[in-house]
Amino acid sequence: MKKFLRILAISVVLLVLAFYFIAVPKFVSLITDYDRHTFEYVTDNPEILENYGIGAKRTPGDYGFDTYREIDYNSLTDEVALNGWYMPAAKEGITQTLMINHGRTSNRLKTMKYLELVKAQGLDTLYNVFIPDLRNSGKSQEAKTALGYEFAEDIVGSMKMLNENYGQTDFVLWGFSMGAMASAVAINRPDLVEFQKENGLKVHKLILDSPLSNIKETARLEGQSMGIPNFIFNMAWGSFDKKVNGYSDKMKLSYLLNNTKLPTLILYSDGDKTTPASILETEVEGLFNVYPVLFKDCEHVKLYTREEYKERYTSRVNTFLRSNDL
């Protein structure tokens, strides 16, 4: 009997070690690693290209922004090489920039279509526009990510570059999915906030489309759908939390939007399976600076491309961006 118990105990220990050294790193890698969507990866794949909703368009020039510039620069803290498009405003002397930030497994080609909205509504007379490829995307450098934690560094690095190159001091961040979470983190993470204060940079508003609203709960639901036991998830999450310097519990909109209280327009759908509306609605309930707009039965980040919603989406964004102009 003692021999059996000893073997059982050893087996349990080996099983736990196997989970810790194999299952946990594997789950963390699902969060931090994903295929880099280069321009060629998108344009050579008809299915992905259709999902991006840009047709034959490939540059801002195809949307009437003939003076756009392509810029190489670096992220703020780790010097990851980034690349983006800058479109000067149609009027001289504009010092506010609308930055449009894509999400995970994406690149700036996917967010480029919103230039149609900007141009049609004359918002290019109020804002310069910048569309970056955040890390591991498009023409930017391959790198690991952490559900928006490093994307936030790229966003503030973009602000730094725009200030140094073009004298930009005021910003509106328009983010999608993980890019939405990153936009909110960028104005809350203490080190990034301190950098902005020291350099006279200020974000005035947020637009969040299909946002990742609570990284832990969203990851937990995804883990459950994959059949990952809770104890494995909890061990993996502890490991992931170390990668974001213990900040993961604050990566939820209930904290991020309440902490800064910036005017925030949220566009979302109850048909979104990637960033569930149930989590989002719980996160923003009772936040008076947040203006949520619900669209029915629409897939993740597809609100603008649904013909029946395009006018409503455009109207909401246009009104929000014009309200209380800087």
Question: How would you characterize this protein structure?
Answer:
The chain is of the alpha/beta class. It is built from 13 helices and 8 strands. It has 2 domains: 61 residues, no CATH class; 252 residues, Rossmann fold (3-Layer(aba) Sandwich), CATH 3.40.50.1820. It has an 8-stranded mixed β-sheet, sandwiched between helices. Helix 1 packs across helix 10, helix 6 packs across helix 7 and helix 11 runs parallel beside helix 12. The chain is globular, with a radius of gyration of 21 Å. Keywords: Hydrolase. It comes from Roseivirga thermotolerans. It holds the Pfam family Abhydrolase_1. InterPro entries: AB_hydrolase_1, AB_hydrolase_fold, DNA-binding_regulatory.
Task: For the record, give the distance between the C-alpha atoms at the N and C termini, rounded to a whole number.
Answer: 78 Å
Cα radius of gyration in angstroms: 21 Å
User: Reading side by side through the largest sheet, how are the strands ordered?
Assistant: 1-2-4-3-5-6-7-8
Structural class based on helices, strands and sheet pairing = alpha/beta
CATH topology of the largest domain: Rossmann fold
GO molecular function: hydrolase activity
Keywords: Hydrolase
Organism: Roseivirga thermotolerans
Domain AB hydrolase-1: 97-190
Give the topology, please.
Blueprint lengths: L1 H31 L6 H5 L2 H7 L16 E6 L6 E7 L8 E6 L6 H4 L3 H6 L7 E6 L15 H18 L3 E7 L1 H9 L3 H9 L3 E8 L5 H11 L4 H14 L9 H8 L3 E6 L7 H8 L5 E6 L11 H16 L4
Parallel strand pairs: 3-4, 3-5, 5-6, 6-7, 7-8
Antiparallel strand pairs: 1-2, 2-4
Protein name: Alpha/beta hydrolase
GO molecular function, one term: hydrolase activity
Keywords: Hydrolase
